[in-house]
Each structure stands twice: as C-alpha cells, then as structure tokens.
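Before relying on records like the one below, remember that each one covers exactly one chain. Contacts with other chains, cofactors or solvent are not represented anywhere in the record.
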Amino acid sequence: MDYREDLNSVVKKEEIEECVTRVMTVIEERRVKDIEKLVENKVQEVSKKVNSLEIKYL
C-alpha cells in the first residue's frame, strides 16, 4: 500500500479537500499581504520623490 492508499483509508475525501482548501486560502492570503506591502512601499517611495521634486521646484 502506498501513502495515498493509506491516507484514503483513514481520511475521507471531503476532509482532504477541506484541508487543501484551507491551505490554499492561507497561501492566497499571504500573497495578497505580500503584494499589499510591496504596493505600500512603492507608494511611499513615489510620494517621497514627488515631495522632493515639489521642494526642488517651488
């Protein structure tokens, strides 16, 4: 018996699907947080450059 057969004999298919769904949800949430942080950092960077230019040309 391989691991998959062992797992199927102990855990119901619905439980496996639910677990996979939870894992995928956590992965997606982390990706979203990472992307939000990158965007936030870029916005701050651009804001600093704009402020610098305003000071320079005012």
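Residues 13-57 form the longest helix (45 residues).
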